[in-house]
Amino acid sequence: MTDSYDAVVVGAGPNGLAAAIVLARAGRSVLLIEARPTVGGGTRSAELTLPGFVHDVCSAIHPLGVASPFLRGLPLAEHGLEWVFPEVAVAHPFDDGPPVLLERSIEATAAGLGGDAAAYRGRVSPLVEAAERLLPDLLAPPWPPPRHPWLVARFGLMALRSARGAATSLFRGERARGFFAGLAAHAVLPLESPFTASFGYMFSLLGHAYGWPLARGGSQKIADALASYLRSLGGEIETGRRVRDLRELPSARAVLLDLTPRQVLRIAGTRLSRGYRRALERFRYGPGSFKLDMALAGPIPWKAGECARAATVHLGATLDEISASERAVHADAISERPYVIVAQQSLFDASRAPQGRHTAWAYCHVPHASTADAAPLIEAQIERFAPGFRDLVLARSATTPAGFEARNENYVGGDIAGGSAAFPQLLFRPTFRLPPYATPDPGLYICSSSTPPGAGVHGMCGHLAARVALRRVLA
Ligand SMILES: Cc1cc2nc3c(=O)[nH]c(=O)nc-3n(C[C@H](O)[C@H](O)[C@H](O)COP(=O)(O)OP(=O)(O)OC[C@H]3O[C@@H](n4cnc5c(N)ncnc54)[C@H](O)[C@@H]3O)c2cc1C
Predict the structure, then answer these.
(1) Longest CA span, the chain
(2) What is the pTM of this model?
(3) What is the DSSP letter of 211?
(4) Which of these, 331, 396, 394, 401, lies nearest to 373 by C-alpha position?
(5) pLDDT by residue (tens digit) across 344-356?
(6) Atom 5 of ligand 1 has which residue's CA nearest to it?
């Protein structure tokens, strides 16, 4: 380590790693500093329950990872990353009858939607055909203007609706409506809010065009591959060092922060103008999450056996039930039947558990900083769709909103999305400034999921922020 770099990046989440890679590839000297003993941020794995059980501490399923225009261009396979693609992206079970399955084939997916098949096909097919052109524009800030303005405008017209509005006007049946609600509820917003339809369309598009894969060996492998590639480019990484004040850092022409506004305010101090500080103080955080990781004696015994074809299962059945769950969270309550996202990685990756054993990863949204124990509610939801599940649990590890924040300061109040995705913050984050990554200090940038395009393991925030820094001060 030296005492002077072209750039220092604080925080080794996927965006911090991405930013450092962009800078190192451009031939700049880079130091990446991480508070925890390991790199990864929201992309980590650990033995949270019993020896031999590998759990994804945060992210588990990576449609945005394989679709990311940035990550796809990196030689991550050479650095140990192998994506595993389940046949089915998402299973959405009901109390009775077969689940809806989001398959790679639009036709096969539509076939599970009965009378709504044609409506689904008609809406989703043009998006999937345009995916390669559309995605780079959608995973970017609204300005500079998109490369394919007509495609984005067409997507935008559909996307600006609420998920409830889109689901009820497009579909007649409960199955299609519930399925769409399950995809849209990743927004962590009431499904009556504008722009929540965008999440429904985005996640179905990703399922058809790219798949919803997991990383063999655990999500930590994604971070490890990024770190290994960064080192191969000459980038340096220092772990186990929490930055408390930017003045502690070695001198650098650019500092990029993989942090949300609250930590930026805390450590950047006097480097921020008063107006910009005020703007960051207005940044809004969203609800928290409550997560259960479980070691299981066998696979989850789904009533609808087809659920075992997907690594991701959305629990909540109907549009009304899922929207009630998301509304409750925003009214400071937890629904008796919360919308639960389940991942069952070990069905597709034997390295996750000892032979014959399995892992389960499940979480629901809860009010910001909630201290409630949502474990019984999550377990009851799984049991409802998979009777006998509880008897298989060998050990469990629960993470509360405070637990998330203790592991990673970015998860303020348990908000795992780097801030609310409510409009306008969905598009303009962390403030209304353009480019959003720049601060008034030409040497200081924000590159976390609190910038566009927001949450997810795609590295786009880091990639785009680093490009701005290169253009402005590292040319
Ligand atoms: C339970 C859960 C489930 C999720 N599921 C998925 C999923 O399935 N798929 C998906 O795509 N995304 C998922 N996500 C979201 C995804 O993990 C995040 O959007 C992503 O990790 C954000 O990346 P980031 O680089 O912006 O920040 P982070 O990943 O939060 O990384 C920030 C890093 O900065 C470090 N840091 C913080 N403060 C300091 C400091 N002062 N000094 C030094 N270092 C510091 C932190 O330790 C951390 O390593 C999930 C998240 C959670 C928590």
Answers:
(1) 66
(2) 0.98
(3) -
(4) 401
(5) 999 999 999 999 9
(6) 59
